[in-house]
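Take a look at this chain, tokens included, and explain the fold to me:
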Amino acid sequence: MSPRTRRSAEELVRDVHAAVLEETAEVGVGRLTMDGIGRRAGAARTTLYRRWSDPVEVLLDALYHAHPVEEPAPGADDLRGDLVAALRLMVAWMLSPAGRAVAAVLTDPARTPEVSRALFERVFSRRGGSFTSTVLHHYAARGHFPAERITPVVTDIGEALVTKRVMDTGAPPDDAYLTEIVDQAILPALAPVRAAGVDVGDGRSSHS
């Protein structure tokens, strides 16, 4: 019996998760197979089928466990810093095996709508939604601003600008740029909405 067959259940799952992320990044989700995952993990396909029904299930399980979760300050006393940290977490994730696997899924022409939907519903939504969403809801729940201001557009701002920066430059943004995203886009979007007819350029609050 080889040493590979004596792995604990936890070690096997860890190796399979690592293998499916690597396999997806290389071949895409459309060509993902249990045989390919098993070869990378050093496990028989029959072993994989005892835990997962198909290769996409293996991938979703791996992505769920690899997806980072934001940890805002318990005292909710540093919104700006927590938002920058959330975007920094996103950048680190994009460079990780999980981030590269997700990029391969989203750019694979062979992916199905069901795979994309499962990715958002079973991974992203269950792990806090978009990056910055957890932080924003944490601060809204503690009275820093009304929860109604956390719209889908507001929660997407950070991710969209980070992704655009990567696409435009081929490199992840640095902390200075992440801070600019927070200062120039996310925080202003949380400001009070002005009443109709008020000049948005006058610098006055609609409640003044």
